[in-house]
Amino acid sequence: MTMRYEKPATAQEAASILANEPGVARVLSGGTDVLVQLRAGMIELDLIVDIKNLDQIKDITSEDGGFRIGAAVSGASLGEHAGVVALWPGVIEAFELIGSTQVQGRATMAGNLCNGSPAADSVPAMAAANATARIVGPDGERDCSVQDIPVSPGRTSLTKGEIVTSIFLPARPERAADAYLRFTPRTEMDIAVASAAVSLELDAGGTCTAARIALGAIAPTVVLVDAASKCIIGTKLDAAALEAMSTACSAACNPIDDKRGTIEFRTQVVGVLAKRAALIAYKRAGGRT
Amino acid sequence: MRNLHISTSVNGDQTEFVCAPDETLLDVLRNRLGLTGAKEGCGTGDCGACSVTLNGRLVCSCLVLGVEAEGAEIGTVEGLAMGDHLHPLQRNFIDHAALQCGICTPGILVAAKALLEKNPNPTDEEIRYWLAGNLCRCTGYDKIIKAVQIAAAEMRGA
Asked: What count of other Cβ atoms lies within 10 Å of the Cβ of residue B137?
């Protein structure tokens, strides 16, 4: 193997290097997926492009009431940022479930997204949060909804030369919150068998006025379930509304059978997780059930 | 394959080395710098035996490229003791039999030190969660948790 290593100083330079590479290339940020794949021989690389020298790539900045999170911000740094933790607790709890303390010292949300795993913990939470990824490519800059990035296991909609430089978590009104739950056989160091993220907005009386529900590990990509959101909008998350929402989540499943869970198990459990996550988000948003 | 020249800091000492682009920091530490405290258990970031700090963050050195050490500050288990004077964690691991075969011990010591710098008075549960990425197949963890608690109490008193 003759892998080359590049550490460009600007996103445009990184995009240009990647666009002009005739061989197999990968972006290196935290490396917790790409270096595992490299060492396991799952991929053979001609080029690895380290993006950690790019401007603002390790920064968390306030923007329009939300936060822009650089593509090289580690889970450890993110979890120490009081502002993001307060605004998007569900996104933080999802990302912090990934790996060990050591993995959190390196892993990034942008990397979790671009790795393309259907079981990526932070991706349903980002999709529920209506997060957008900023992408720089050979033709310039664009923004893309997080849920439109993964297209199948291990594959993304990014074109050759494009890199995600940051994730934007938007502002939210008062009485809004999110939550994420996953099912794993172990409490730590495990991968989701099924997962659900719920983001809610409430009015002063505790009625849900907006909801986004995203499911993980139950289809080839993250699934945003509008039909489930409709079941709880206009309600105070009473038992009947939650049951309808749970049923809608199960109906949106297209899972696989594997050693970690069967189709039937994933389909049922994801509805239960969505219900419980909705109740946590509701409570965090100030609602009483 | 073109080797790269890297300048870094290991345990506070300015260090230079040459390595291949696909060489891990773990291999650099062990094979080029002679620092064999960090161990390769799994090589996939699951076991924590290769734990070091990179710019103050606890990481698995098997999942860091050697070339990423350019301009960085690395901390390894070799930096814990002051000459012959063991770090309280090291001394208490010995005194309270918190190791058997010892393969996981350097990684656990580095991880525990990072925890106590962030949280000098952790609960047992906090220690167990923090060390969830450090696998030990001998001790059953109980003595490790106790040794960390005793060292933490000693360090708080010091």
From this structure: 11
Do B67 and B32 fall within a single domain? Answer: yes
CB contact under 8 A, B57 and A76: yes
Q: Is A43 left (phi over 0), alpha (psi -120 to 50) or beta?
A: beta
Architecture of domain A60-169: 2-Layer Sandwich (3.30)
Element (H, E) at A280: helix A263-284
Q: How many CB pairs (< 8 A) connect A and B?
A: 92
Based on the fold, state whether residues B9 and B75 are members of the same structural domain. Answer: yes
Angle of helix A263-284 versus helix A89-96 axis, rounded to 10: 140
**Which residue among B20, B50, B79 closes a domain?**
B79
- Together in a domain, B97 and B121: yes
- Taking alpha carbons only, the member of A146, A147, A282 closest to residue A211 is A282
Say how far apart CA A245 and CA A207 lie, in whole Å: 15
Q: Do A32 and B45 touch (CB under 8 A)?
A: yes
Mean pLDDT of successive 10-residue stretches along chain B, which has 158 residues? 91 97 97 98 96 98 98 98 96 97 98 98 97 95 98 94
Q: Which of B108, B38, B100 is nearest to A100 (CA)?
A: B108
Residues of B in contact with A100 (CB under 8 A): 45-46, 48, 132-134
**Which class is A176-284 in CATH?**
alpha beta
Q: What is the pTM of this model?
A: 0.96
Query: Among all residues of chain A, which has the CA nearest to that of B110?
Result: A102
Task: Going from the first residue of chain A to its last (289 residues), give the mean pLDDT of each consecutive group of 10, the final group possibly shorter.
Answer: 91 98 97 94 95 97 98 97 98 96 98 97 98 97 98 97 98 97 87 96 97 97 98 98 98 94 97 98 88
Of B53, B79, B105, the position where a domain reaches its end is B79
Instruction: List beta partners, residue A5.
Output: A48
Select the residue from B27, B40, B63 to test the A interface by mutation, using most A Cβ atoms within 10 A.
B63
Same domain? B92 vs B146: yes
Nearest CA in chain B to A74: B57
Predicted ipTM beyond 0.90? yes
* Residues of B with Cβ-Cβ distance to A184 under 8 angstroms: none
Q: Are residues B75 and B10 in the same domain?
A: yes
Instruction: Identify the contact set of chain B against chain A, taking CB-CB distances under 8 A.
Output: 1-2, 4, 21-22, 24, 43-46, 48, 51, 54, 57-60, 62-65, 67-68, 70, 111, 114-115, 129-134
CB contact under 8 Å between A105 and B22, yes or no, is no
A48 with B48: Cβ contact below 8 A = no
